[in-house]
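The instructor's notes for this session suggest beginning with a concrete chain rather than abstract definitions. Hand out the sequence below and ask the class to guess, before any prediction is shown, which regions might be ordered.
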Amino acid sequence: MLTIKQLETFVQVVELGTFERAAKHLYATQSTISKRISELEAASGLQLFDRSKRTARLTEDGERLYGLAKDTLSNTDKILRLKGDPESPFHKIRIGVTDLAALTWLPKFLQECSYSQPRIKFEVTIEMSRTLAQMFVDGDLDLIVAPLETNILRDTKAQKIKLREIELALVGQSSLVSSPKPIALKEIEQYKILGQGKQSTFAQFINKWLFEHGVQLTPTMIANNLLAHVGLISAGHGVAILPKRCLLNLAGSADLVEIATIPKLPSIEYYIFLRDESRGNLLSKVALEIQKNADFTKPFFV
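After discussion, reveal the predicted structure:
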C-alpha cells in the first residue's frame, strides 16, 4: 500500500541528494529510508532510482512521480490545516541564524510567531554563517538567514529572498581617533585590529574587499562573537569592522565612534534561504514573518 510517509521520504531523498541526508532530515535510520523507498517502488510498480549511480539519480518514472508526490504532500498539508483543525499536528521548522540576528530581531520574531503561527514549533540554531550553510545543504535546517557570500549558498538551488543590506563601519574608542576626518584604507593598518576567524564568512568578505583595494589586515585578536567585540573595543584594545548601527546601539554609553574611511566600506547582503519542498507554503509564511521583523540595527535588550 502506498503511504504519505513513503512519498515524504522519496521527496526528501530527491531534494537532499542521498539516502543518508534524507535519514538525518527525517530523524530515521538509513535502513528505514531504504525500506520506505523499496515499499514505494513495490506499491507503484515503478523503478524510481538508477542504482548504478553513486548518488540518488532519478529514472524517468522517478521524475514523473516526484512532481506528483510533491503535489500530494502539499494537498495533504492543506487538508490538515482545514478550518484550523485543533487536531492537526504541530509543524516543526528548523531555522538557523547568526549572532547578529539573535542579538537584534530574533526574539521579537519568535514572540510574534507564537501568536500568528501558533502551530509552528521552532528549533533554532545560532551559529557562524558557514556552519549554517553546511547544515542547510546537509538537510539539518529548513531555513537560514545568512550572507550570500558563503560559496556553498551561492551554488545552492534553494529558494533565496534578499532580506537586508547591512552597513559596515570601522569602529573604535574615541580616544584612538585623532581627527574626525576620514582616513585612507591603508591607514587602518596603524591600529590594533580585532578580527573574526578564518571560518567567518563575514571576515572573508571584508578581507577580500580590502585586498582588492590594496590592504591586508593582520588581526591582533580574534573573536567570533559581537558582544566580545563590543567589550574589547570599549576597553580600548583595538578597532574592528562590524555592522555599524547595531554595534553603536549595542555599545550604549560606551565612548565608541565610527572611523570614516575613503573609500567607504561596503555593505553585506543578508538573504533568507528556504527549502523548495512539500512544506513550501509554510516556509514562505515564516519567511514573510522574518521580512516583517528583521531589523538588524536595534539590539532587542537596549
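Then share the key points. The first strand starts at residue 49 and ends at 50. The mean pLDDT is 85.
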